[in-house]
Design goal:
The complex is a heterodimer. Chain A is mainly alpha-helical. Chain A has one domain: ABC transporter involved in vitamin B12 uptake, BtuC. Chain A has 13 helices and four strands. Chain A has a two-stranded antiparallel sheet with strand order 1-2. In chain A, strands 3-4 form a two-stranded antiparallel sheet. In chain A, α3 runs parallel beside α7, α4 runs antiparallel to α5 and α7 runs antiparallel to α12. The longest helix of chain A has 30 residues. The mean pLDDT of chain A is 91. Chain B has two domains: 143 residues, Rossmann fold (3-Layer(aba) Sandwich); 226 residues, Response regulator (Rossmann fold, 3-Layer(aba) Sandwich). Chain B is built from 15 helices and 14 strands. In chain B, the strands form three sheets. Chain B has a six-stranded parallel β-sheet with strand order 2-1-3-4-5-11, sandwiched between helices. Chain B has a six-stranded mixed β-sheet with strand order 7-6-8-9-10-14, sandwiched between helices. The model of chain B has no long low-confidence stretch (mean pLDDT 90). Classes of the chains: A mainly alpha, B alpha/beta.
Amino acid sequence: MRSPLAASFRPIVESGVAVSIGIVAGGLLMLAFGYNPIRAYVALFTGAFGSVAGILESLAFATPLMASAVTFAVGVRASLFNIGAEGQAYVGAIGAIIVGGTVLFPPGVHPVAATIFAMCLGAAWALPAAILKVWRGVHEVVSTIMLNWIAFWLATYLIRTYLGEPGRAERAIPALPTARYPVIGETLTAIIFVTVCFCLLVTILLWRTGIGFELRLVGDNPEAAKYAGASGRRAILVSFLVGGLAAGLAGATQILGRPPSWTLYATLGNVLNLGFDGIAVALIGRNHPIGGIFAAIFYGGLLHGGRFMEFQVGVASELVEAINGIIVIALAIPEIVPILRRMWVRL
Amino acid sequence: MQGIVIIVLVLIAAAAVAGYYFIAAPPPCPSGSKCIAIVTDVNGRGDLAFNDMAFAGADAAAKDFGVKVVELISRKDSDYVPNLETAAKDPNIILVVAVGFLLADALNATAHKYPDKNFMIIDYPNLNFGPNVMGIVYEEHKGSAIVGAIAALAAAHYGYARIGAVLGMEIPLLYKFEIGYKWGADWALKWYQAKFSKTAPVIGDTPINERVLSTYTGSFSDIVKGYEAAKPMYERGALAVYNVAGQCGLGVAQAVKEIAEAKGLTMGPPFWIGVDADQDWYVPGFTLVSAMKRVDKGVYLAAQLAVQGTFRQVVAETGGTVVLGMGTTVSGAPAEGISVSTLDDLDLFIQMGVKAKELTGKDVLPMSADEIKSKVAAMRNALPSWIWDAAKELEEGIKNGQIEVPMVMTEEDLAKWRAIVGTG
């Protein structure tokens, strides 16, 4: 167990144990309510990954979560508990509608411009929390929760006024056809490649650059980092901004890369919870952007596959959510324990 | 570590054995059966109106035609497409029902992808969705006219100066309600004049632009906004306020309840008016009447046509959009979907409240079913019979085509009709 190889396998073993515990607990819950857990799980997993259509749809559900998981993961790496992805994703979606739906660009350029604008807006929304943290010491949990709500009402207001489509009160104006990413199949579009590339770039930033080293150093041991001359302020600022870019991208995926509506619903129902689900995905992915990609695919499979437990086995939809929740919590435990321990020490 | 792994493996094995021997209920749609799939919008079940009525219609069809009902609840807006597709792919499903206009984009995409499957959408016309899609729309303006008439005559009876309406988002669908309601009030005051050879007391002397107050709250969900819009209407002497704002409109009932509690009333006035479902059970004794839009009948009709195999034929005949209202027909047979609540309707909707309690655990019924019914009956009996006669007369006139209620769907028409029946 002491060899480096064994050490690198350890997280995988831990996650494997965690997923088993979650599945067994969910199964016991189903037994308690009189459903056949084996059939339900078969329906869940074959529904999510048992066919090409199922895989494509699961990936479509996974795409925004890959991005929103980065927000939380980069935060944790810098010792932040950044839960602002939710609001930054709303703002990103609004940004994608502004450029994607109201500005004319040639095809090819349009999706790129809209995506970049959405990401920048997401980063801009993260900036107040970063500034408050760095210069005033305001805890990021407080500031990001507040910013989430401001973003919610701002987005709701914009959909009902300037970005609303006359006669279609239920949604905003859609992204123009030139701004849409090509559809691969089902509701999956090429924006998944953009998202994966973004996750890889963040990985390179964290582990192959000086600023990334500084960021992780500040996260691991702030005192030592200060002693070594690393700038805690810069690291925190970078962490927030990268997180904002990621969350903005998460919001944009639902506008520029998700048929059939290509826009935001007035309830924000198609971007709601992307940020909070991203926290779970980040924890499952051990706060690593690449781990997050796989965790998001797993989570997307639960989101898509859950409907088959309901449809094929008759498991009540509320119970489906509860089972998915149990599996997710079990998976997040290996990562959340050290975070809580660290917070306890800080207190 | 290894110890944990072993424990977990044992647990998995135990659960597997338990699951294998556990005889679970058969799947909702076993192969060889005929099924109807209901795909809800994000409001899901337990809304006591739209989605619950769709299920009530499906359950009735299941009983009468021996089909099975499968439900797919949408938790996010991004669930619409995969839910519709999941249902469309199942060979046993003969009809996929999309409950509500929120699913329109998703339905359009899915229906084109599965041209052999029958689809139905509530509250949305078939706009080139294909020959396999039936859009069902309702004549809400007619129901609104009748409740407007009842409210105006009740105001005359009790000596109130105004009536009101709280509406949701300012969308064309709601113009139908607003003008229908105002038009009905206008019709009723003229009826009163003709019947009793005098102007209706108090409300008849109110200037036409003040007579029927109306406010768009911009929301279908914010109960506080509904409450805030209704409160000043009652303060200005409105006898009854019509809820045209879904959940938001329940704030109207809240305002009435508050007045009732402050004054120690057991029965209106003041009143409020229900919408879509029969909401007479909600604050019983203070709900004057409800303008019902029978989503259940739409689902039942589509299921019936699908079972009979005449679904496509009716889609072709009607151009894809079936209108359910008062005196409407489908293929020569009467098919209605708009009516004003009666005492008999209460049973179905009280049942819905009981079911909602089972589903959500929340006790929605304010009192026992018998108490509700006796309160509603007492309130109705307190109103003079000529009010109900007028309502009957208007209803029959609409049904036989002698009375035409304006159907307003555009802003130009809205401005034109507001000039006639009041800006309020």
